[in-house]
Every structure is written in structure tokens, then in C-alpha cells.
Amino acid sequence: MSTVAFTIISIFTLAAALAAATLQKLMHAALSFAVMFVGISAFFFLLGAEFVGLVQIFVYIGAVAVLIVFTILLTRDDVGKLRGFNWGGVFVAIAVFAGLIWAILKTKSLSVAPSQIEPVTVQRIGELLMSNYVWPLQCVGVLLTAALIGALILVMEDKSS
Amino acid sequence: MTLSILLVVSAALFCIGLLAALSRRHAIFILIGIEMMLAAANINFIAFWRFAPQPAQPTGVMVAIFAIAIAAAEAAVGLAMVIVVYRHFRTTNVDQLDRLKG
Fold first, then answer.
1. Which residues in chain B touch residue A161, judged by CB atoms under 8 angstroms apart?
2. Is A72 helix (H, G, I), strand (E, B) or coil?
3. In principle, which of A88, A98, B7, B21 could form an S-S bond with B33, CB 3.0–4.6 Å?
4. What's the pLDDT score for residue A74?
């Protein structure tokens, strides 16, 4: 875990996030959103959670970013009228950031070095998912099924009217 | 690289997400902001797991995987709602969706 890599990844991720939050063109914002998730999975790789990083790339860049791009294309409309920016949100975000920084810097026990851990293999994750975490796994399966069926029903054309 | 600097980065990411969710008028930007905040929470899970003294189980990794699954479900339903709102009102500007206003 080198400091140089951490600094580069932090700047890259935060710049992409800021671009995704502030760019005027929706399509550019969606692409910066995908770039930001590359940075976030680089964080996960750096922290030794390779599987989570891969899942993040598959789910977010492979699925969610494509979904967002499709939604932008399907709802392309009054882009020019949406240029407004609510400055109250900026103040709220800065206030929340200041509060979080204050809390982090006040906490003394956070300045620890990373502990030596054995790498988490995919086999270990699979075994845990099938033993200790089998109920959460089933619940997430039910939730995903319900959410996807719900999304389909929501966007289905109403033929009767 | 200590835990606190990692938490500062994740707090910054969370606040950028909050900024996008609160200050943009387009519904898709609000969803993008919510996804950013969830990703910042995931970074916190992994960071606290990584810096904890030798855990018996990779709890942070498991929580992060479940959080990613739930965030994906949320994104699917949210984008479906954006499409439905656009079909009904011909706009995705959340400031114009004020029919329930008293």
C-alpha cells in the first residue's frame, strides 16, 4: 500500500466524482460516473479486497452505468432548461463535510497502521456465503428479484388506456 | 496511509454525492449522487475491515458485497421511476414535479 498510489487514486476518484456532480451535459456526467467507479475499485484493490473491486467494476461499470446511459437516451428532453444549480445544496454539503472532518480528526484511535491480514480468496467468500451468510444471501436474492420485477412492471406500457 | 486519511477521502466522496443529490434539478443526477454516497460507505466498510486487528471473518468484505447488490436493485428501481415520471410529465426536472405540494 504505497502512499503515491493512494494519492494518485484519491485525486483521480475525487476529480471524476466532482465532474460527475457538476458537469452540465448529462452524458458527460454519466461517463465521469463510470470513471469514478474505476477509481473506487482501485481503492478496493489497494486495500486487499480484490473480489469486491471486481464486483464493483462488473456491477457499476457493466450494468448501472449502461442503465443510466439508456435512461438518459430515453428521457432526452429539456436539457437546456435544467441548467439551474441550487446553491443551498452546496452549503449543506460543505457543512456536512466540515462536520465529518472534525469528527475524524477528533478521534485519536484512527491513526493506526494497516494490520497484516491473509488475503481473502474467492473460495473463502463462497464458503462464507454458503454457511454463515446464507440467510442474507437468500434475502438479497428475493430483494433483487422483487426489485427487477417491480422495475419491469413500472415501465410497462399500459395497454388498456 | 492511515485510516484517517482514507476516511477523509471517503467523506469527501460522500459530500460530493450529497452535493449532486441536493443541488441538481435533473432526477438522474440525484440517483448518481445517491450511488456516490453508497460507494463512499462501501469504502468505509472495506477500510475499517482492513485496519481492524486480524478479524476472524472478512466481515467488511461481505457487508460491502451485500451493499453493492442492494445499491444495484435501488438503481434499477430508481431509473425505472425516472422513465415513468418522464412518460407522465414529459420532464425529469424534480422542481416541476410538485403536484403533491400543499
1. none
2. helix
3. B21
4. 86
